[in-house]
Structures are given as structure tokens and as C-alpha cells.
Amino acid sequence: MESLSRSAVICSISRTPQGPSPPNSLPSTSTFKGNFAPVAEIGEAAQVSAIEGGIPEGFPQGIYLRNGPNHVYPDLTAAVSVFGRTAYTIVEGDGMIHATYFSKDGEGNWNVSYKNKYVETESFLLEKNRKKKLFLPTITGDPSAVLASFYTNMVKCGQPVKFEANTSVFEHAGKLYAISEQNLPYEVDPSNLDTLKSWDVNGTWDRPFTSHPKRVPHTGELVIIGIAIQKPYYVLGVILADGTKMLHKVDLKFKTGVLVHELGVTENYNIFMDYPLEIGINRALAGNRSLAMSKMKNLR
Ligand SMILES: [Fe+2]
Predict the structure, then answer these.
(1) Considering the entire predicted model, what is its pTM?
(2) Where are the chain's structural domains?
């Protein structure tokens, strides 16, 4: 864990998430090709022998990590039923962590290796064990088809949406986590990228968890938000620096679900946003897209 704490743990999504497509304007079969094509899971770490340029003087030993969506079944682009069509989006891809390990031998020579591995959430393992895609897409499509996807996923898989853990990685209290904001973080062993278990902060957090938690200057506490498609829609939480439990938790009393991807933290303030990007099953029940900008609201 020494190398992890000394390294800069980098969060990024490799590909810009697509905005919701209007009904009947669904992604084409080229969605997951080219720059959006998935890469293979390589198994054992590979030595990196060709490095363009040089490793800067004073560069720390450690691990460079990134997470991103990497569809196991990239040829499946849409689901069609009597209810209409829903399409798989890049942001619904299976989470894959990429790690580049930087270490020095006794003579100060760099050793660089690379490894990748899927984040093995319960959803991922369910499909892996059945050797087929089970979850239907729920982000974009005809409202009635999106509702049918939620329902079908519940019946077939026991939950309305897949847990992908595909958006970012973060470190807290010496542990590494992979996360996407519809579920809890998954602890990952940085040495081999094995998925260990989901993290509910010792039973003190039971809802979605932001993809981009922020550390409080000086105290080391971790500030998170959890947005949901049912009440409470928007909850703010503060986790102790040692990761053992929540220090604070407050329902921000929002009247509807909104998709909020970021927050800000300073020494004295937590800064949370209210986006006019509404999300929820109720929208689909009313015949609207489940995720859309509200023309009645402004960002605040
Ligand atoms: Fe992000």
C-alpha cells in the first residue's frame, strides 16, 4: 500500500459519455468500434519495454490507475421489443481498471509493467457465470421500452440497473475503490486488481455513492453525495479519515431526482450543485425520457 499512497491516483473516463439520444435516434452499430472499442483483459501483468521519451527526474514509484467502460459484448447495441427500443450506451460498459506500475531496482533502474482487469461486481459475475448479456439498457430509448428494461432487469437479475463500477477510482484510508454513481464502491486490490467487496462504510451508507468524492483539506475526511431515482433524492455524507464510519449524513430534501456528477470541497464549505438534469422512473411512467434536461429550471 506504500506505493499506492505515494502515487498520484488518477481518475478519468477514457471516453466522453454520450448525452441521451432522443427516441428512435439510437446509436448505430459503430458505437463501440474505433476509439470506443473495448480492449481485451490481458491476465498477467506485461512488462513495458518501449517507452517514448523518458520518465521525469524525481518521478515517484507507484501505480497510475484509471477506470473506464469496456463492454464485454460490444456487438450488442440495442434491445428491441414490443415496447420499443433501448440502446446500450458507452457509459453502461463494464468497468475495467488499467494499472501501470512504476518501480525501481536497487540500482535505480525503472521497471514498468501494465495490467488491466474487469471490476467484478455482482452484476458482472452474474453475466460472466451465465456467459451472456443479461441486463437490458436503461439510459436511453423509448420511454415504454426503458420501463420494460427496468422491470425485466428486476425479474431476471434482481435489480433494475447493472452495477458497472466503471467511472472512476479513488483512495481512502489506504484502500483503493472502483465506483460508478448508481451503486456502492468496490474495493480493489491494487497489487493484482482483484475485486474484493463492496464498501458500505461499515453499514453506515446504504445508497448510491458519488463517482468523485473529495477529501477535506487538513482533516482527511471524505465528502460524498448519493443521488437516487427515489426519495431521498440527494444525500450528502462525510466519512471519517480512517474510513470506519460516516461522520455526518444529511438529506438535502430535493423534490425530484437530478443527475449530479460532481461536488466541491474547501476547508470550510461543501459545495453541491443542483443541475436541471432530471432522472427517474417517474419520468418514464409519465411518458418522458428517464433522463433529460428540464426547461423549467436553471443550474444553481
Ligand atoms: Fe467524471
Answers:
(1) 0.86
(2) 1-49+59-199, 201-300
| 16 Cα–ligand 1 center, Å | 9
DSSP string, the chain: -HHHHHS------SSPPPPPPPTT----TTTTSGGG-------S-EE----SS-PPTTPPSEEEEEEEE--S-TT--EEEETTEEEE--GGGSPEEEEEEEEEE-TTS-EEEEEEEEE---HHHHHHHHHTS--PPP-SEE-HHHHHHHHHHHHHHHSSSS-----SEEEEETTEEEEE-TTS--EEE-TTT--EEEE--TTTT--S---SS-EEPTTT--EEEEEE-SSSS-EEEEEE-TTSSSEEEEEE---SS-B----EEE-SS-EEE---SEEE-HHHHHTTS-SEEE-TT----
Q: Is 212 annotated as a binding residue?
A: yes
> Cα(279) to centroid of ligand 1, in Å?
17
How many A from CA of 167 to the centre of ligand 1? Answer: 7
**Lowest mean pLDDT, pick from 27-36, 77-86, 217-226:** 27-36
The pLDDT-based confidence of 3 (bands split at 50, 70, 90) is: very low
Q: What is the pLDDT of residues 176-208, one digit of tens each?
A: 999 999 899 999 999 999 999 999 999 999 999
CA 130 – ligand 1 centroid, Å: 31
CA of 13 to the centre of ligand 1 (A): 6
Confidence of residue 30 (pLDDT cuts 50, 70, 90): low
The rounded Å distance from CA 98 to ligand 1 centre is 16
What distance in angstroms lies between residue 109's CA and the mean position of ligand 1's atoms?
Answer: 35
**How many whole angstroms from 122 Cα to the centroid of ligand 1?**
23
172 is in an annotated binding site: no
Q: How far is the CA of 32 from the centre of ligand 1 (A)?
A: 20
How many Å lie between the centroid of ligand 1 and the Cα of residue 211?
7
